[in-house]
Amino acid sequence: MSFVSPLFLWYFMPAVLIAVLVCPRSWRNGIIAVGSLLFYTIGAGGFVFLLLGCMVVNFLAGPLLAPSPWDVHGLRRRRILIAVVSLDVAVLLVWKYAGFATQQIAAVAHWFGGSVPVASLVVPIGISFYTFHHISYVVDIYRGERQALRNPVAFAAYIAMFPQLVAGPIVRYREIADQLPQLRSHRLDDIAAGFPRFALGLCKKTIIADSLGPLVDACFKVPSDQMTFATAWVGAIAYTLQLFFDFSGYSDMAIGLGRMLGFRLPENFARPYSAVTITEFWRRWHMSLSRWFRDYVYIPLGGNRHGAARTYRNLCIVFVLTGFWHGAQWTFLVWGCYHGALLVIERRFALDMDPATPWKRYLRRALTMLLVVIGWVFFRSPDLGHALSMLGHMLIPDFDGLGAGVEQAFTNQRLVLLLAAMAVFVLPAHPVTGPLLESSRSRPATALRIGVMTVGLLYAAILIATGTFSPFLYYQF
Questions:
Q1: Element (H, E) at 48
Q2: What percent of the chain has pLDDT over 70?
Q3: Is 259 in contact with 186 (CB distance < 8 Å)?
Q4: Structural domain contains residue 320
Q5: pLDDT in tens, 112-130
Q6: Where do transmembrane segments lie in this chain (predicted)?
């Protein structure tokens, strides 16, 4: 059940919001927990029992991880933490990576004339996200940063909360722990504040991202021997825009839904394509994932506290894991290693500093954007051979045009591509329209926001009603 499906927009979401609005305030977590598990069951079927099993284990482990005077040295708590985190990671590894691992083993065995069966498992939707939520929960309790939840309903509301269950943002436990027991006193205000954000994300997804989808698919489906310079660049740029508007649109919808339910979920994007360095890009892109790896992998490994060599090592480990977290394919591993190498180079040669002069900033921003686009080619390509071929054509100009299939798709989506590119590449890092659209105190600003959202929503509703929408790209991760 996607956020942009009629079932969700016209039945599920209104039902949950009405229930939260009219029922006693103390029912909020229960309504969210039940609704979220129903939401997941509709999308994932029997995999809801895997989610419930992981929830039970982590919930029962929570109180055992709290600091105790009977465990002065923390050995018992450490063993429990290792066991629970190992179980969480094992579930993720088996369901998401067993097929990939057995494929590689089978390929090696084939070289020696043997054969090994290849596992074929369906990856449960959202498993990468709820696994990270579970790990955040037990680690934050172990560190003494937050107390364990004693109420299973509140715990289920955190882990299974449908706005962020299947594609984020990744909400660390300490970011939401203080909000779980609170009783809402301004429910209408929350809905009024959250709905425009939800509507903005819906427009991003249906009007821009889904419009660019056919063009991206047409470009990346072109065989390597028929690829041209123009096709490669149009495909890379179109995917760069599609991915941003699709994923940031989902995040906007999730944050807006969370606010309507009374929760303030963390931001996930801050105009990442305006970044001047790759380091800054990762402070702006999928910020909840970056913060999770920083807090639970990079800093425990030592961060940047033990010299340059260990810092580079830690960065490489984090981005190898970041790449594989996105999927069990060599293209994701290469993409992660690519960004890790760029970060190491920036740090080694002090290129992660913000240039002092405006013209240098524009040059660095253009270079950063180029490097990001190159990385997205690996991210989107079906295999390494296709990615390398596409990058090769991007480096060698020719005059062969786009090809018939791509030309038709490009003609239909040219205006969308141009407007989206202007919004991302040309506008400043902090658009002057931001405060105007987000302010709720000014009557002209409110009227403008309502007008823009009304027009966008009407058009998005037409697109959804005609079936011209597609699943969110990050559902596959």
A1: helix 48-61
A2: 90
A3: no
A4: no
A5: 888 888 888 888 999 999 9
A6: 7-27, 39-60, 80-98, 110-132, 153-171, 230-250, 315-342, 362-379, 415-432, 452-475
